[in-house]
Design a protein that fits this description.
It comes from Kineococcus endophyticus. The protein is built from 8 helices and 16 strands. By secondary structure, it is an alpha+beta fold. Strands 6-7-8-9-16-10-15-14-13-12-11 form an 11-stranded mixed sheet, sandwiched between helices. A 5-stranded antiparallel sheet has the order 4-3-2-1-5, with no helix packed on it.
């Protein structure tokens, strides 16, 4: 039997993500490099570890895999994770069609489908003076026919006032869009499907990809249909599940509630939670959340996150009722018209 090629033992790795790489040393022994993946040129992996940068030849890799970010404070994983690390986690659940890194910033474009996939995620140092970095964002989005947009994460209870980036954007006319709250929970604490029974005449269906019935119920920002870019983004995570509740009493069965679950190392995400107005206040939102929670537990995800607009009181009450608490907030800044 021949040894497997190194790439056979390397799970897909994302530049900017946290990884552990077991690799062979010149004396024949092996060691692990744990840290942030800075670069992958196909021949070597460059990893920022606590002891400095390590460059590993792929030919020496014995195994490699992505891992959750380290805790930033004491507490369970869903509360101990730092804001920027959680933002990086969430970005891997909703990957854009195009991504260009500017230092620690991620410039994203996806034909205009969702702010998350068409904004600059401003994390850490962009490697340029702030004014030049913001100008680079404007050039990037303008070249693609998009409105320049910056996603800014900050503590809940404000808009990040007093930070250099927010103050610069505010002073130069960038306006606020979609203040959003990020909620987290320990996956094991979330109710399961057995605890949230369905009303009579309804059934649950799940699939690894969204079918036409699921897509017809998903109305992001009021869009009548999901464009091709959206369909690609919906299946862009490491793994995802699409949950729908069907009213069997209607002709052919009507989809009355949906949700999407997604996966990355240690984390599950919940997006696209919608219930048909005629079927609200029947516990269907709780049930689709429970279905995602059961799926996440089966995949070993210790923590779960979701995002909700800050002024959506009904949704926030639903999520708080099943155990989610506020981790941090973010909002978008929109460039002034030229």
């Amino acid at each position: 039997m021949t040894d497997p090629t190194p790439d056979a033992l390397v799970r897909p790795l994302t530049v900017g993500g946290r990884v552990v790489v077991r690799h062979r040393l010149p004396d024949g022994s092996a060691t692990d490099a744990l840290g942030d993946l800075l670069a992958d040129d196909g021949e070597t992996l460059r990893i920022a570890t606590r002891r400095g940068e390590v460059v590993v030849a792929r030919a020496d890799v014995l195994a490699a895999k992505p891992v959750p970010p380290p805790p930033a404070r004491k507490g369970p994983p869903h509360t101990a994770v730092g804001t920027e690390d959680l933002e990086r986690v969430m970005a891997e659940h909703w990957r854009p069609l195009e991504r260009v890194d500017l230092g620690g910033w991620r410039l994203r474009a996806s034909e205009g489908f969702t702010g998350r996939a068409n904004s600059a995620l401003a994390l850490g140092d962009p490697g340029l003076p702030l004014r030049e970095a913001v100008a680079a964002v404007v050039d990037f989005h303008t070249a693609r026919g998009l409105q320049p947009l910056v996603a800014v994460a900050h503590p809940d209870g404000g808009l990040g006032e007093g930070t250099a980036l927010v103050d610069l954007l505010a002073a130069t006319g960038w306006t606020v869009r979609t203040p959003t709250v990020v909620l987290t929970a320990a996956t094991d604490d979330l109710p399961g499907a057995a605890e949230v029974p369905l009303p009579a005449g309804l059934r649950v269906e799940t699939s690894a990809e969204p079918d036409d019935a699921w897509l017809e119920r998903y109305h992001y920002q009021g869009l009548p249909t999901v464009p091709p870019a959206g369909r690609r983004i919906l299946v862009s995570a490491d793994e995802q599940v699409f949950v729908r509740i069907v009213d069997t009493g209607t002709d052919g069965g009507t989809t009355v509630a949906i949700a999407r679950g997604s996966l990355s190392p240690g984390w599950a995400g919940v997006t696209a939670v919608e219930t048909l107005p005629s079927h609200r206040r029947r516990g269907l939102g709780r049930r689709v959340l429970a279905e995602v929670a059961d799926w996440a537990r089966s995949r070993g995800a210790a923590s779960t996150y979701l995002q909700v607009q800050g002024d959506n009181a009904a949704a926030r009450a639903l999520y708080a009722g099943v155990g989610f608490t506020v981790h941090h907030a973010y909002h978008y800044r929109v460039a002034p018209q030229r």
